[in-house]
Amino acid sequence: MGNITVADNVIVEIAYRALCSVYNVPLEDKEFKKQKKNITVERTPQDNVIINVKLEVPYGENILEFSKSVMKAISENVSQMTDKIVEAVNVSVLNVFEKSEENN
């Protein structure tokens, strides 16, 4: 029949959209779009994916729980939309930030 290849930038876009849902920000948020550069994709020899995400956690949030919700959202969305096996979602917390009142 043929092959279907899903490019890494497609996986990054899916992960970004999952990240937007966890942070509860609109997809069009220009400031938040900078987060895309903090998402990378690795491929295993079996063509499974490992997604690496660097992020900042809102001050006052439980860092572990917030990170786990990011990991779960990204893994589920990528698996569902691409049928790829997500071996891991690695989260590196770089900073904490104050939530702005306009986003609430």
TrEMBL record:
InterPro entries: Asp23 (IPR005531). PANTHER family: ASP23_GLS24 FAMILY ENVELOPE STRESS RESPONSE PROTEIN, HYPOTHETICAL CYTOSOLIC PROTEIN-RELATED. Belongs to the asp23 family. This is Asp23/Gls24 family envelope stress response protein. It comes from Fervidobacterium nodosum (strain ATCC 35602 / DSM 5306 / Rt17-B1).
